[in-house]
Amino acid sequence: MIDLSSPIDAVGWEPEPISHTVMTPAEGAVHMSEEMREHFGIDFDPSVLPDGELLSIDTLSLTTHTGTHIDAPSHYGSKGPDGAPRHIDEMPLEWFHNPGVVLDLTGLEPGAVDASYVEKELASIGYTPSALDIVLLKTGASELVGTPKYFTDFVGLDRSAVHLLLDMGVRVIGTDAFSLDAPFTDMIGRYQAGGDRGVLWPAHFAGREREYCQIERLANLDALPRFGFTVSCFPIKIVGAGAGWTRAVAMIED
Q: Which Pfam families would you find in this protein's record (predicted)?
């Protein structure tokens, strides 16, 4: 098993900072005693516990797009191809445990590749995705995790590339970058230069036309073969959410 997940780390740089507070086991014992008294009318002296300790408790404040996560169709907008888009808790589990294939986008300038690039990349490795295969983009951006450059220096897919993969039956596309689209600096620059609204988040907005999920902020894709492995990336079941965290892993048979 190869861990494909980037950590949720309050120490690293994030545009929306993570808050992570820890209640120590001793504090947890007092907290439990107070909660039992308030909610259940039970008096309990935590000093009788070993070292006066019970359990630690972690409290975090963060978005569902922090760390390795899966975007649901409802993340892309309020309207989907068949009405209201599905949330992360409504997605079929069979989408998230399937054969994987890695497309190499390393060494490219920040921006987005099109369908012709994806076709050439697949031809170069002699692989055609089957329905429900999980396609992973190796951009090299995971080396920048925890820095501002992680959010601006990577390569994504344009609209044609996404639709090509969806035509093949792919329903989950992953990347080791911050976004499946080009960096916002690149997209907005091109929009301001030419006025074409179609360059703004085309990979995400493709999900308004056809239902699919993205895995963003993966890691360790350089440890994988190009194909011949299974990806397991079940999302956390957050009711009504547009995304959910995942502990993504790849499994390679001996």
A: Cyclase
Q: Which amino acid is at 242?
A: G
The pLDDT-based confidence of 145 (bands split at 50, 70, 90) is: confident
Q: Which alpha helices (DSSP H) does 168-247 contain, by range?
A: 184-194, 202-205
At 116, list the tokens: 């012709």
User: Cα–Cα distance between 227 and 20 in angstroms, integer?
Assistant: 37
172 closest CA partner among 221, 131, 119: 131
Task: Convert the pLDDT of each residue in 217-245 to its tens digit.
Answer: 999 999 999 999 999 999 999 999 999 99
The β-bridge relationship of strands 172-175 and 155-157 is unpaired
Sorted by sequence, the CB contacts under 8 Å of residue 92 that are 6+ apart come out as none
Distance of CA 136 to the CA centre of its chain: 11
> What is the Cα–Cα distance from 4 to 37, expressed in whole angstroms?
43
- Secondary structure letter of residue 123 according to DSSP: H
Is 0.90 surpassed by the pTM of this model? yes
| Residue at token pair 């993340």 | 75
| Cα 188 from Cα 190, distance rounded (Å) | 5
Given a contact cutoff of 8 angstroms between Cβ atoms, the answer to whether 47 and 33 are in contact is no
* CA–CA gap between residue 100 and residue 88 (Å, rounded): 21
CA dist., res. 121 & res. 67, Å (int): 27
Alpha helices in 10-158 (DSSP H): 25-40, 115-125
pLDDT for 12 equals 83
| Integer Cα distance of 157 and 214 in angstroms | 12
